[in-house]
Specification:
Distance between the termini: 84 Å
Number of domains: 2
Shape: elongated
CATH topology of the largest domain: Immunoglobulin-like
Low-confidence stretches: 1-22
Radius of gyration: 33 Å
Helix content: 25-40%
Mean pLDDT: 81
Oligomer: single chain
Length: 227
């Protein structure tokens, strides 16, 4: 009987190791062997020296715990797959829509790019600087900003009067009020979604070559571009 108990213990250890590695088929096979061995031992045990029930009860609990963990992992995988599918389906509905999202970079296309600027309060003086993808200044303008959100448009003309090529440009705003105190200005990008990148863990909206995370989208509207 000692040999039998040892075999039961070894089988349990193998099953636990298999469960840890996520091998569902192996844990099922080991569990079947365990039950067969346990049943045989119970049938042939010495009535005067019965098996220790605590030992095989603990092993049964151990097997059951590993099995439940495997099932939980399978359910979590299914939930994650369903969630990603739903998120992807939602993201594709943005294609062709005009969006406003957090960020300072926007896409210049056909001589037009725009941002939404929101100063903390009215700014009597604001210097708006446009930078290209290499962080070079391509245009600069002095203006004033009213309180609240407002759209700032750029026609793609550089400070030298040249037409900047289409691409991604970044806006920086330095503003001050009538007393000369600095005014913080939040910036948001505007653009029309033309595709969705589904290659990563989460879908990403594309405005030209610019990537916009779904979580950064603040508002959605109909496209203003011509059909």
């Amino acid at each position: 009987m000692t040999s039998g108990i040892s075999n039961v213990t070894n089988t349990s250890s193998t099953a636990s190791s298999s469960g840890a590695s996520g091998n569902g088929s192996e844990i099922a096979s080991n569990f079947t062997q365990f039950l067969t061995l346990l049943t045989t031992q119970l049938k042939n045990q010495n009535p005067l020296d019965p098996m220790d029930t605590n030992q095989f009860t603990q092993q049964l609990v151990q097997f059951a715990g590993v099995e439940q963990q495997l099932k939980s992992n399978d359910r979590l995988d299914s939930i994650l797959t369903a969630s990603k599918s739903a998120s992807s389906a939602s993201a594709t509905s943005y294609i062709g829509k005009s969006i406003t999202a957090d960020g300072s970079s926007s896409q210049l296309s056909n001589g037009a790019a725009s941002w939404t600027l929101t100063p903390a309060r009215a700014a009597s003086k604001a210097v708006v600087t446009i930078l290209d993808s290499k962080n070079n200044v391509v245009a600069s303008q002095s203006t004033s900003l009213t309180a609240g959100s407002q759209t700032y448009g750029w026609n793609g003309k550089t400070s030298a009067g040249l037409t900047a090529p289409d691409g991604t440009y970044t806006i920086k705003v330095s503003a001050s009020d009538a007393t000369g105190a600095n005014v913080a200005v939040d910036t948001q990008l505007n653009g029309t979604v033309d595709s969705v990148d589904l290659s990563g863990a989460a879908p990403v909206l594309m405005i030209g070559s610019q990537k916009v995370p779904l979580s950064s989208v603040q508002s959605i509207g109909l496209s203003t571009s011509g059909t």
